[in-house]
Amino acid sequence: MCGIVGYIGTQQACPILLKGLRRLEYRGYDSAGVSMISSTGELNVFKSKGKVDDLESFLEDKDVTGTIGIAHTRWATHGVPCRENAHPHFSSTGTLSLIHNGIIENYASIKERLKEKGYTFVSETDTEVLVQLIEYYKIKYNSDLLSAVQRALSQVIGAYAIAVLDKNNPDEIIAARKASPLAIGLGDGEYFLASDATPIVEYTKKLIYVEDNEIAIINRHSGVNIITIQGKEVSHEVSEVNLDLGAIEKGGYEHFMLKEIFEQPECLLNCMRGRINDEGTDIRFSSIIDYGQRFINARRLVIVACGTSWHAGLIGKSLIENFCRIPVEVAYASEFRYSNPVISEEDVVIAISQSGETADTLAAIELARSKGAFVYGIVNSVGSSIARNTHTGSYIHVGPEIGVASTKAFTGQVTVLSMLALCIAKERNTITQEQLQEALQELLRIPDKIREVLKQNDTIASLSRTFTYAHNFIYLGRGYNYPVALEGALKLKEISYIHAEGYPAAEMKHGPIALIDAEMPVVVVATNKALYEKILSNIQEIKARQGRVIAVVVKGDDTISKLVDYVIELPETVEFLYPLLASIPLQLLAYHIAVCKGKNVDQPRNLAKSVTVE
Ligand code: M6R
Fold first, then answer.
1. For 525-581, what is each residue's pLDDT tens digit?
2. Which of 451, 473, 493 is the last residue of a domain?
3. From ligand 1's centre to the CA of 496, what distance in Å?
4. What is the pLDDT of residue 509?
5. Is 170 in the same domain as 218?
6. Ligand 1 contact, 407 CB (< 6 A)
7. Which residues are catalytic?
8. Number of independent structural domains in the chain
9. Are 62 and 125 in the same domain?
């Protein structure tokens, strides 16, 4: 979703801002813009529809001088993607410019009030209303920008991370946050701000994360001062961010998504490092050591998440119920937050999120906490809002995920959930030491087994060409593999725009079988030992109706291999770990089909990496 960047210091702001916008491209956007106070004291705003490249071309003959500036990538919510609706937005007198990530929910009523006072608007956005409101208060009370921002924000309902420039004060940026991420980088005589650390780490590792209802005054001479909207001073810890620049670059791969798929063996090793000992005889999670009783005594666990993270949650349910014998519910965070859920102090809520900024998941956490539940986060993005708003949790440690389609974060989440389930089972004595050891040792072998699967990349690439022109796909799986089917279907639709649906294999005969004909590719994840005969029957039913089957099987499975059109083989593992292997070929299949179709794999249309609005 929208990305914001700001700079104030001794260097020219524009190149830093444009580079920052490029780092934020992965969040998804449809237009971009910059605003600088020029060397001659002009407040300039330049923006364009399309990509940062389009903006850069547009800037070629413009005055882009200035050592203070703000910039924005917009993901349309209010109003179509076009230059007028792109940010930054000017105030009526042209003395203020503002960028915004979030949604001002009561913008319509504020707009009406301002119109009655003679204000006119050039865009359809909620953001323009905010900059006009700030200017209105600035003029009405003859105040400085800070007081006007405070007054305006106390009127606003909704979510925002904003940054404002005032032509009359070229030494200061005012920024504020409520429910949308905002980080400030502290350099040597220069300051950066951004929606996340990626545009900043190149210049400084020292970061301050602005909290909800706070305003940051970033001054060229006096540095960063943070207050609440009501004006109370607050102090903040400065975090050291350990983000390797290489991790946010493509490193020779054609797309971030492919790089991230191939990184998975290393990522999962990082995820297990320090948690499972080298011999695979023991597992330790510091958060479980500290809060073990909450899990041991939990009446039930409730997992809240969205999208791919929700699919990981479904696997988590099977893992925790099987190993720990605690009932688990899995809810879409967006449904949970409005469902008046029955939650008490005896419940543990697990929030799963790659970005750590998903608005619905954050709201679900807030609700669960207000009802007394203990909230555990499984998060990738270090220092993100979800990581900071949960009682405790575990990072998945897979490094920045830039491709919009989640890949390594999914397997990282499933790995953490597997370890969490085993760790709680150990504490609750629902697993024997022998079973635990067997499970941990097999978990340690998974990265090598993923390497084996990745060797089939070329085969999967060539079979993908056959399916480039398909209009629909069905994905089937059972037990632990049912969420893998859902995830495979989501990957395909996200990046190739082919309609795809995931089903529990046995549900096929209750409806989807009507769709099967010679045109319908069906991906069947058929690794389940216990339900092998049943999956085999499902495949026979599809073949009897001329469906084209791509089967993901365990190496050496001659029976299914003879029956189907295409086979992808996985090394043998234990039942609960197949999702970590089976999801890899499905990621590759979606990737190659999308590439064959010429789609923008890393930034698919309409999608955002961090969904920071409802
Ligand atoms: O950052 P989160 O894990 O909270 O994001 C949740 C979903 O928006 C995300 O998983 C989305 O479904 C991905 N695009 C899937 O590839």
1. 999 888 899 999 999 999 999 999 999 999 999 999 999 999 999 999 999 999 999
2. 451
3. 17
4. 87
5. yes
6. no
7. 2, 609
8. 3
9. yes
Are both 446 and 459 inside the same structural domain? no
Distance in Å, CA 305 to ligand 1 centroid: 9
Cβ of 309 below 6 Å from ligand 1? yes
What residue's CA is closest to ligand 1, atom 8?
Answer: 307
Determine, yes or no, domain membership for 612: no
Q: Would you say the CB of residue 307 lies under 6 angstroms from ligand 1?
A: yes
Structural contact between residues 473 and 523, judged by C-beta atoms closer than 8 angstroms: yes
CB of 67 within 6 A of ligand 1: the answer is: no
Give 119-126 contacts, CB < 8 A, sequence gap 24+.
119/92, 120/92, 122/84, 123/79, 123/84, 123/85, 123/89, 124/78, 124/79, 124/80, 124/84, 124/85, 125/78, 125/79, 125/85, 125/87, 125/89, 126/77, 126/78, 126/100, 126/158
Name the residue range of residue 124's domain. Answer: 3-246
In whole angstroms, what is the distance from residue 362 CA to residue 453 CA?
A: 35
CATH of the domain at 430: 3.40.50.10490
Q: Are residues 33 and 128 in the same domain?
A: yes
| Whether residue 240 is found in the same domain as residue 286 | no
Ligand 1 center–CA 382 separation, angstroms: 16
pTM check: above 0.85 = no
Residues 460 and 402 in one domain: no
